[in-house]
Amino acid sequence: MGREDKFPVWEASLGAGVAAVFAAGLVGVYLSMPDSDYSFLKLPRNLEELQILTGHLENYTSDYTVQVLVGYCAVYIFMQTFMIPGTIFMSLLAGALFGQLRGVALVVFAASAGASSCYFLSKLIGKPLVFSLWPDKLTFFQKQVSKRREKLLNYILFLRVTPTLPNTFINLASPIVDVPYHTFLLGTLIGLIPAAYVTVRAGIALGELTSLSDLYDTQSMALLFLIGVVSVTPALLGKDEAPEKTPEIAVGTS
């Protein structure tokens, strides 16, 4: 195994730490909550289920704030790590329970932690899965990363703000095409803020939502587009630089 293929100890330690915090959080929340009927606790799949869940959790948030926060983060990180759809409902829930500022901070933290966990998991065992599910996207992504290596942070920011590539794919494919973790993390932390702001703001007025399409009005879409253009401009200005030779990715789990 070449040096570039080795999994650094500090990254392995961080990945193990995320998993340990996740497990400890779930156990802690379970043990510290009062005896009650928690049959309402399930992942919402539509706005109606989300509104029902919010109504129940509002009764616990003021008295058991820490437990609700830890439980929320644990579930969000789990969903991001294992590519379970529905995190948009979790973002709406943050707005409904915690308001604008705390809600945005909570969503950005949980989404970034989940994306990081997915990154490390993919670095360990994800290469065959990504090759199987998205061979064309992976080839495209690899070429773009190689071409924009000098301004890679701007490119990751652009991808996070715009729907150019799915976030799940970015999380899984980034370690495979050698996106450094610090670049991945910073781009994720900053790039998720605009979408988090939009969804959390909508969650504050959850009762007025009739469809997920109501989240993105003209003003919100214009803001996201503007941020995307600004973030990718430095990378586009440098596109005439001689690109690095794109390395071949070997299929395997090492």
UniProtKB/TrEMBL annotation:
GO BP terms, alphabetized: autophagosome assembly
Top-rank taxon, per record: Eukaryota
Membrane topology classification: Multi-pass membrane protein
Pfam families assigned: VTT_dom
Record's subcellular location: Membrane
Gene Ontology cellular-component terms listed: membrane
Main location: membrane
VTT domain location: 84-203
Transmembrane segment boundaries: 12-33, 69-98, 104-122, 152-173, 179-200, 221-237
Keyword annotations of the record: Membrane, Transmembrane, Transmembrane helix
InterPro entries according to UniProt: TM41A/B (IPR045014), VTT_dom (IPR032816)
Identification of the protein by name: VTT domain-containing protein
Organism: Brachypodium distachyon (Purple false brome)
Upper taxonomic lineage: Eukaryota, Viridiplantae, Streptophyta, Embryophyta, Tracheophyta
